[in-house]
Amino acid sequence: MAKIRQRKNSTRKETIIETAARLFRERGFSATSMRDLAEQVGVEAASLYNHISSKAEILQELCFKVANKFMSHIDKVDAADTSAIKKIEAVLRFHIQQMVHHYEEVYVSDREWKHLTDPYLSNIQTQRKVYRQRIASIIEEGIRKNEIKKIDAPTAVLIMLHAVSGIESWHRSKQKITGEMLEENMITILIGGLQNK
Amino acid sequence: MAKIRQRKNSTRKETIIETAARLFRERGFSATSMRDLAEQVGVEAASLYNHISSKAEILQELCFKVANKFMSHIDKVDAADTSAIKKIEAVLRFHIQQMVHHYEEVYVSDREWKHLTDPYLSNIQTQRKVYRQRIASIIEEGIRKNEIKKIDAPTAVLIMLHAVSGIESWHRSKQKITGEMLEENMITILIGGLQNK
DNA sequence: TGCTATAACTAACATTTGTTACCAGTTAGT
DNA sequence: ACTAACTGGTAACAAATGTTAGTTATAGCA
Fold it and tell me: Within window 28-67 on B, which residues have Cβ closer than 7 Å to strand D?
């Protein structure tokens, strides 16, 4: 019937993907129907297909957008000339900030990537593995230089990354501390837990 | 057609729920169909209903079984006469051990409880909230007694509990360290991160 | 041997699902 | 003013979903 009120400076496709991210977070990818999504966008389900080609594509866009963001950040960190523990702190702070400010998409891509299908599934799995190995390598470097406690590096990675995903609880809690306070607390505990002495 | 080979010492219903736990972990609750489940059990979908009353019931049983286990454990910990930091360590060790040895059910109840429906949903939400508050109280006690760093207690809880759920990655990894090693590493990092000095 | 409870089967149901085909109105550029 | 690109709607689809009804065959016990 009608053309569109182009909201703000975002395209219609972006609006759909943003809305989808919210629903996928709240209900999960599988439990969100295209009709649910359409209703939230304010349109009929079939109309969504003027902007996206499938439900799967939405998840792909979300997952790869986030994956690229984290990959290019760790590139910069790796290139920097600082101590291992500082590098780990930088990675951790980036994760925290992303979870605080781009909650929906980061959370969804972390929890729902399993619903991708090949070749996207294999691609993401590889990227995740590589990413974790890169962090583990920094930690091992830190252990050799005695900056970091003698621990199993993959275990440390697992703790770091999963602890960060707990920021979901913070978002849903009534009386939140500020994002900055949250960040400092998490750094205190996690970097404090890794650091030697 | 045929009667049953009653496997081991578990009832048919228990077999179904165990199998469901595995599938719910792998694919998620919503993405697992009753026909998928039936196939894994080795039976037609309709036959499942001789043992369970609905798909929802399976999730309920899993969630409340796990919730009860954690609730009664923290009761014991609370009653004990030790330092706050020792109590936190006990809770943490219990979580780790449960995730190591009862992976499927613990993981599923932690990730999929959102798909419960009322009144079960409200019930679980309340239980989870209470549980986290009890841990937070112990941490706050530890802060007052100077056993624990001056941090935001809810944030510490969030880190602890989510870090533990990372044990999923450990389960799926090829070259695992032992469960005992995993536990010690996690305790080193997390208790080390909380402890004062 | 015959009775009863159990647990499997087949068939079918009403919904819900993702998606397509097709049409209609609006907007922008010529 | 005419056209083309968009973006919306309606109707419909085939497949998949959770679940029920009704039936049959087995196992254990009287």
Answer: 32-36, 45-46, 49, 53-56
